[in-house]
Amino acid sequence: xxxxxxxxPGFSQAVIHLAAEYWxxxxxxxxxxxxxxxxxxxxxxxxxxxxxxxxxxxxRRDYPWIEPAFTMDVQVGPRTERAEFYDAPAADGHPxxxxxxxxxxxxxxxxxxxxxxxYPDNHRRFAFFCRAALEALPRLVRRPPVVHAxxxxxxxxxxxxxxxxAGRPFFDRTASVMTVHNAGYQGWYAPExxxxxxxxxxxxxxxxxxxxxxxxxxxxALASADMVTTxxxxxxxxxxxxxxxxGLHDSFGALLDRFTGILNxxxxxxxxPMDDPELACSFCAGTPCGKVKCKEAxxxxxxxxxxxxxxxxxxxxxxxxxxxxxxxxxxxxxxEPDAQWVFLGHGDPYYHGRLxxxxxxxxxxxxxxxxxxxxxxxxxxxxxxxxxxxxxxEPCGITQMRAQRYGALPIARRVGxxxxxxxxxxxxxLFDAYExxxxxxALHAALELFSDRPAWNGRVREAMSRDFGWARSxxxxxxxxxxxxxxxxxxxxx
Length: 494
Prior knowledge:
Layout: E1 15-18, H1 30-44, E2 49-54, H2 57-62, E3 67-76, E4 79-88, E5 96-101, H3 103-106, E6 113-114, E7 117-118, H4 122-140, E8 146-150, H5 155-162, H6 169-172, E9 175-180, E10 188-189, H7 193-197, E11 210-211, E12 214-216, H8 217-224, E13 227-230, H9 233-239, H10 249-254, E14 259-261, H11 288-301, E15 312-316, H12 325-331, E16 340-344, H13 349-361, E17 366-369, H14 374-383, E18 386-389, H15 399-405, E19 409-413, H16 416-421, E20 429-431, H17 436-450, H18 453-464, H19 471-493
Parallel strand pairs: 1-2, 1-8, 2-5, 8-9, 9-13, 13-14, 15-16, 15-18, 16-17, 18-19, 19-20
Antiparallel strand pairs: 3-4, 4-5, 6-7, 10-12, 11-12
Helix pairs in contact: 4-5, 5-8, 11-14, 12-17
């Protein structure tokens, strides 16, 4: 099934997405592209689709053509605050995007924090965002929609619908879906903040918001939602275990059939090596010479010797522990003399320093780029032979899907969506233990295959033939919405 095809049976009610990120307006990781992929393909299938996103300084600066739409007062706890709404006209096949503005909350240098720390009032910032979006809904849609919240930043929207806004018929009949993209971030705060957020303290108990002496906003959303999803089938299983549930395994387990895993996708029109303006040469599975030219261009850009027989290993990821940088640095794989290495990303200053030291010690075969751009990522995947993803955990991951489409075989841990999207020995190389020896063994298996050119080219062709488009996944979301609507109707009647 082609990624651009109709995503299965449609859905007639309006779907409202609430998220802290949405590509291309605001992005720090895969969340922005995942929400955009779902919303875009829903809209293209005829589903009335709206997206709410905070109106960050970056958006105001980079998209000056975004127009004011309306304003309204919003009550959040003891405060009445002014919400400014802006909208971006929807092109054919795209959702309407509304931006929620409030200068003191969102006119800041970054999305979540600065200098490696979070803004201390993030709970108030995103509470305002959630409450403002909900209060705007009755004037934007004629009948109760499905509210689809993404990660902890939007979690309070579902909590508000079942607490503060309970008893208002519009919200009592509004179905809700919570998608957990990264359960490592849950929104933990001292219970005293509930008053600031406008949530009655009687909801602070172990079945709802209480979590080891803190108020856990994501846990509240799990308890409130009609349906809950995460971003791969494997990760749905992991979240139900003490080892993989980030302290919420009991909450995920208690959801029973209200919880499912739906694999993310990629947008094939944005990630297509046959029609990618960022690449030095277009290519496909049947024209590997184009890949060779892209590799040569990347080697020269990084200051390496242009050698098609020298394996080039790339990594594009946030520089954080989750992505496996401790494993990379402890394993010594970057000292592998028969390979070239390119690291792209930004994050923890500790990893910046360690990677910079490696590059200074071997500039002829190690390059680091902390000025992440999408253009660089396209060139990296177009030129790399292998992609490194030794993640501590990975709910889904999208870079490994893009890499396969661009003929770069992933070396990854068998976790979450990596296990669901990489065929070990067929389209990539998987290992299990989070140990340096396991990573080294997988790397050596990849380098051994690379030296056998006919076998290697066969694996590359197989990887490039895989379809990771959104069509199938969005059809599964529509079924989740139908189940959520049925549950909400039953609850309203009850």
